[in-house]
Amino acid sequence: MVDSINVQPNSPKLSSEEESCLDYYYDNPEDLPGNLDLEPNALPPEITLIDYTENTVNQIKISNPEDCIPYLKSDSVSWIDMLGLGNKIAWQQMAKVFQIHPLIIGDIVNVPQRPKIIHDNNQIIIITWIVRINSDFEPFEKEQISIILGEKYLITVQEKPEDDCLKPVRERIKNNQGIIRKQKVDYLAYSLLDTIIDGFFPVLEEYGERIEKLENEIVFNPARHSMQKIYELRRELLTLRRAIWSLREAINILIRDGTNLISPDVLVYFRDCYEHTIQLRDIVETYRDLASDLMDIYLSSVSNKMNEVMKLLTVISSIFIPLTFIAGVYGMNFNPEVSPWNMPELNWRYGYPFCLLIMFITAVGLIYFFWQKGWFENLSITLKEDD
Amino acid sequence: MVDSINVQPNSPKLSSEEESCLDYYYDNPEDLPGNLDLEPNALPPEITLIDYTENTVNQIKISNPEDCIPYLKSDSVSWIDMLGLGNKIAWQQMAKVFQIHPLIIGDIVNVPQRPKIIHDNNQIIIITWIVRINSDFEPFEKEQISIILGEKYLITVQEKPEDDCLKPVRERIKNNQGIIRKQKVDYLAYSLLDTIIDGFFPVLEEYGERIEKLENEIVFNPARHSMQKIYELRRELLTLRRAIWSLREAINILIRDGTNLISPDVLVYFRDCYEHTIQLRDIVETYRDLASDLMDIYLSSVSNKMNEVMKLLTVISSIFIPLTFIAGVYGMNFNPEVSPWNMPELNWRYGYPFCLLIMFITAVGLIYFFWQKGWFENLSITLKEDD
Amino acid sequence: MVDSINVQPNSPKLSSEEESCLDYYYDNPEDLPGNLDLEPNALPPEITLIDYTENTVNQIKISNPEDCIPYLKSDSVSWIDMLGLGNKIAWQQMAKVFQIHPLIIGDIVNVPQRPKIIHDNNQIIIITWIVRINSDFEPFEKEQISIILGEKYLITVQEKPEDDCLKPVRERIKNNQGIIRKQKVDYLAYSLLDTIIDGFFPVLEEYGERIEKLENEIVFNPARHSMQKIYELRRELLTLRRAIWSLREAINILIRDGTNLISPDVLVYFRDCYEHTIQLRDIVETYRDLASDLMDIYLSSVSNKMNEVMKLLTVISSIFIPLTFIAGVYGMNFNPEVSPWNMPELNWRYGYPFCLLIMFITAVGLIYFFWQKGWFENLSITLKEDD
Amino acid sequence: MVDSINVQPNSPKLSSEEESCLDYYYDNPEDLPGNLDLEPNALPPEITLIDYTENTVNQIKISNPEDCIPYLKSDSVSWIDMLGLGNKIAWQQMAKVFQIHPLIIGDIVNVPQRPKIIHDNNQIIIITWIVRINSDFEPFEKEQISIILGEKYLITVQEKPEDDCLKPVRERIKNNQGIIRKQKVDYLAYSLLDTIIDGFFPVLEEYGERIEKLENEIVFNPARHSMQKIYELRRELLTLRRAIWSLREAINILIRDGTNLISPDVLVYFRDCYEHTIQLRDIVETYRDLASDLMDIYLSSVSNKMNEVMKLLTVISSIFIPLTFIAGVYGMNFNPEVSPWNMPELNWRYGYPFCLLIMFITAVGLIYFFWQKGWFENLSITLKEDD
Amino acid sequence: MVDSINVQPNSPKLSSEEESCLDYYYDNPEDLPGNLDLEPNALPPEITLIDYTENTVNQIKISNPEDCIPYLKSDSVSWIDMLGLGNKIAWQQMAKVFQIHPLIIGDIVNVPQRPKIIHDNNQIIIITWIVRINSDFEPFEKEQISIILGEKYLITVQEKPEDDCLKPVRERIKNNQGIIRKQKVDYLAYSLLDTIIDGFFPVLEEYGERIEKLENEIVFNPARHSMQKIYELRRELLTLRRAIWSLREAINILIRDGTNLISPDVLVYFRDCYEHTIQLRDIVETYRDLASDLMDIYLSSVSNKMNEVMKLLTVISSIFIPLTFIAGVYGMNFNPEVSPWNMPELNWRYGYPFCLLIMFITAVGLIYFFWQKGWFENLSITLKEDD
Question: What ipTM was assigned to the predicted interfaces of this complex?
Answer without folding.
Answer: 0.71
